[in-house]
Design goal:
The complex is a heterodimer. Chain A is an alpha/beta fold. Chain A has helices at 12-27, 48-57, 75-87, 136-145, 149-162, 191-194, 267-275; strands at residues 33-34, 63-68, 91-92, 101-105, 118-122, 173-175, 179-181, 200-205, 210-214, 220-222, 249-253, 260-264. The longest helix of chain A is centred in the N-terminal third of the chain and has 16 residues, at 12-27. Helices cover 23% and strands 19% of the residues of chain B. In chain B, the strands form 2 sheets. Chain B has a 6-stranded mixed beta sheet. In chain B, strands 6-5-9 form a 3-stranded antiparallel beta sheet. The chains are: A alpha/beta, B alpha/beta.
């Protein structure tokens, strides 16, 4: 472990402050609790909120997985994973099933999370009404009164203008039939996974200094209309590498002649399927390990 | 200060373990967790002492049940929390048995997180009248039978729950065990 830092980087007083905010967040599902966000050794926008939440819950027995858009091997994921390996000497993994704490940027793993796991979301903008009402005083009042008409008007205008609700990520949800909440910029495809999830879901927004949470088994409903029900959008093709038809896919440009490849965004899910012998149309058999 | 016992043996790791127990209990009402790592001063039990060490400090106003006044020096020394003259001024409180919840700050609709968290010390978390819990954190329902809560606790709790999103959150402690009742949980006689 790196000398000269407290366990998991943050000092104990900061952890206590964040822990108190987390407990209140769990007690009021979907409500944004203000907290004293600290300056972290990486810029805002790189997951400082998620990192502070993770640092406050992490213990020596935890196994940490970090994903960025579903991938374990992107810069943000690698650097955050290494940060905690160095400052907390914590075990890390890329396997969803082996992790006790999963910090994520903009995805929920395909594998169903368990009761004894915690998922920590990095949140750039915690206020779901931000684009409709820029005043925090006003949005706080709206949340206090559960006055979410403005969001329903926005969805209605989408239907009137485009014939459908045109939100493909950061799709607003209602938590426990009370609080309107931003699910962070996860694809709408992932929204149904939040509903009655067995794992505890924690959200940290560092720049905006807000923490919120969804306890396990809590109802999370994507806003919609009876005649325009919520639909999760995904690519129409199966994964090119593993052939999965039930996972969220990234579109990758593979040449300069218009070639396209659709692959699982969740790298662990894709690798596990390929290891189990599933091969997509652009894939190849894995070499025996 | 003569006779003051120590706080956590390992302040960083013990506080982390205790917090995860409290987080687990708050996320899953009725689940009983165990804590360790501290020799508590009378009349505090291990769990009460550990929870206070884990959650309160100079930033949290704290109200101590006068009946537990013997622990005042220990809490002041280890936590340094400014004491609240009146229960309604406290962010955290400790009471032997259930205190009158209406005397505490329940927060308001725009700032429900400003409400008090009360650490309620009971003789035992088992062996009392069974209560059925349901709500966020529970797949279906759970049963808990804490000993020492008033007989009309379900009615008291209904009033607290009626304040949602405002409301008081409770951490029940007995011996080395703890459980939590967040404001969202429904409590009925089982």
């Amino acid at each position: 472990m790196t000398e000269g830092y407290n366990f998991a980087y943050l000092d104990e007083q900061t952890k206590r402050m964040i822990r108190r905010a987390l407990l209140k967040a769990v007690a009021i599902p979907g409500h944004q609790v203000p907290f004293g966000s600290r300056e972290m050794p990486l810029p805002y926008g790189w997951g400082t909120g998620g990192i502070q939440v993770t640092a406050s819950i992490l213990g020596t027995n935890d196994v940490l997985k970090v994903i960025d858009q579903g991938a374990d091997d992107t810069t943000n994921a690698v650097s955050i994973r290494r940060f905690f390996a160095r400052t907390a000497d914590v075990a890390t993994t890329t396997h969803t099933a082996d992790a006790t704490v999963i910090q994520t940027r903009h995805r929920i793993p395909e594998k169903t999370l368990r009761d004894n796991q915690i998922i920590v979301y990095q949140v750039p903008q915690p206020e779901p009404l931000y684009r409709l009402e820029s005043s925090r005083v006003e949005t706080r009042r709206m949340h206090g009164l559960a006055d979410y008409g403005l969001m329903h008007v926005k969805l209605y205008e989408d239907v009137a203008r485009f014939g459908q609700i045109s939100i493909s990520y950061d799709y607003p949800v209602l938590v426990n039939q009370r609080y309107l909440m931003s699910p962070s910029p996860i694809p709408a495809f992932d929204n149904p996974k939040m509903d009655r999830m067995p794992a505890l879901q924690l959200f940290g927004a560092g720049r905006e200094k807000r923490i919120y949470a969804i306890p396990p088994w809590t109802a999370v409903r994507s806003l919609d209309f009876d005649d325009h029900p919520f639909r999760a959008i995904n690519a129409s093709e199966p994964c090119g590498l593993c052939g999965a038809t039930d996972s969220y896919l990234d579109e990758v440009v593979i040449d300069d002649r218009g070639g396209r490849l659709f692959v699982c965004s969740d790298t662990d899910h894709c690798a596990e399927r390929r290891a189990a012998g599933h091969i997509g149309k652009d894939g190849f058999a894995e070499a025996a390990e | 200060m003569i006779g003051l016992t120590a706080g956590f043996a390992d302040p960083v790791q013990d506080a982390q373990r205790c917090f995860r127990s409290v987080l687990d209990a708050m996320s899953r009402p009725g689940r009983i967790a165990t804590v360790a790592g501290v020799a508590p001063p009378a009349p505090l039990c291990v769990a009460s002492a550990a929870v206070l060490l884990t959650l309160i400090d100079h930033e949290t106003t704290f109200w101590l049940d006068p009946a537990a006044g013997a622990a005042n020096a220990w809490i002041a020394f280890h936590c340094g929390a400014p004491s609240a003259d009146m229960p309604r001024d406290a962010a955290f409180a400790f009471s032997l048995g259930l205190a009158d919840l209406t005397r505490f700050n329940a927060g308001n609709h725009e700032g429900p997180e400003t409400s008090a968290t009360i650490v309620v010390q009971l003789p035992s978390l088992t062996g009392g009248a069974p209560l059925r819990l349901s709500g966020p954190g529970l797949k279906d329902s759970a049963t808990i039978a804490p000993l020492g809560l008033p007989a009309d606790f379900p009615a008291i709790w209904r009033r607290n729950r009626g304040l949602f999103p405002a409301g008081i959150d409770l951490i029940l402690c007995a011996g080395n065990t703890l459980a939590a009742l967040p404001r969202t949980v429904q409590v009925e006689e089982a």
